[in-house]
Each structure stands twice: as C-alpha cells, then as structure tokens.
Design brief:
With 74 residues, the protein is mainly alpha-helical. The chain has three helices and two strands. The chain has helices at residues 16-34, 38-41, 52-72, and strands at 6-9, 12-15. Keywords: Membrane, Mitochondrion, Transmembrane, Transmembrane helix.
C-alpha cells in the first residue's frame, strides 16, 4: 500500500482518512442535534371540543383507534 496523504493542521500531520472520518462524525452529530427530541414527537395536539360530551366522545374514539392500531401491529 502507498503511504497515503497527509495534511498539516496546526503544526501536526493528519492523515486524510482521519479527516474523512472526522467529517462524517461531525456531520452525524450535527444531524442528531437538529433532529426533534423523542418526547417532542409524541406530543398530542389539544382536543378542541365545544362541550364536555363532545370531548369525552373524541377521547373515547382516540383510545379505541389506538387500541385497534396496536392490535393490528402485533
């Protein structure tokens, strides 16, 4: 194998493969930092109901739909 390439950065010799790995790691960390947190993804929008009965109906419907969805995925 050939000796490979080197760059001089801050007075030190750095191999090109180390620069490539460092760039990929930096890119991955940047993407991870910009991704929404897991708890942000699970936040449900508020239920806007005009009456207490409507609120209870919507809540019951959502629970039943989630139960069916969970059953279908298992």
């Amino acid at each position: 194998m050939a000796g490979g390439g080197f760059y001089t950065i801050a007075g030190r010799k750095v191999a090109t493969h180390q620069l490539a790995i460092g760039g990929l790691v930096g890119y991955g960390l940047l993407i991870k930092a910009l991704m929404p947190k897991q708890k942000d993804l699970k936040a449900d929008p508020p239920i806007k109901a005009s009456s207490d009965d409507e609120f209870k109906f919507i809540e019951k419907f959502i629970k039943e739909a989630e139960a069916e969805d969970a059953k279908a995925h298992h």
